[in-house]
Amino acid sequence: MKHTARRLVRAFYEGDGSLDKVRLVEEHMRRMLAVLRAQYWVHQTAHWQVAGTGFYADHQLFQRLYETTQGEIDAIAEKIVGYVGRDGVDAVQSLAMTAHFIAYWSQEHDLYRRALQAEDMLQSVFRSSYDVLKEAGALTLGLDDWIMATANTHETHTYLLQQRVADELRGVTAAVESGAAAPSAEHHFFD
Fold this sequence. Notes:
Distance between the termini: 82 Å
Number of strands: 0
Structural class: mainly alpha
Strand content: under 5%
Helix content: over 70%
CATH topology: Ferritin
CATH class: Mainly Alpha
Number of domains: 1
CATH superfamily: Ferritin, core subunit, four-helix bundle
Order of helices and strands: HHHHHH
């Protein structure tokens, strides 16, 4: 199976067959898979960790994000198997790349800003991978469409998260302006 899949990838190069190009295509496709798997993990974890005012809305927001990402993971993994064979979705290699993204994003402790970092990184990885795949001649119409559609979906994710962060900032600003920034027991006790 592995050799047949590699021949399919080489067919994209019509005579070139450069192994370096095959490896580059494989690396970028794996990177797209890893960033999606890392996002799934980060968004689902945030879904469990949200608390406080607006808990339910935030719980639902993160659920929407990770559930959308789940189908995207399956789609790119199947494309990788089609391009380079089963080894392209090797669990150990995928986990290592996925863990790298998660560790990087985990430096941000705010759940919403961490999710925004993840969305920004996804756009960067997808843009870079798209350019490499196109230059290598390995970008089929289906893969082109999938990358574009997935990037578009994640632009919506970014918008939703930005609105949530903006609401949070507006709330802090309003509290400061109204003088309610510091907690007080005033008016809670009888004299």
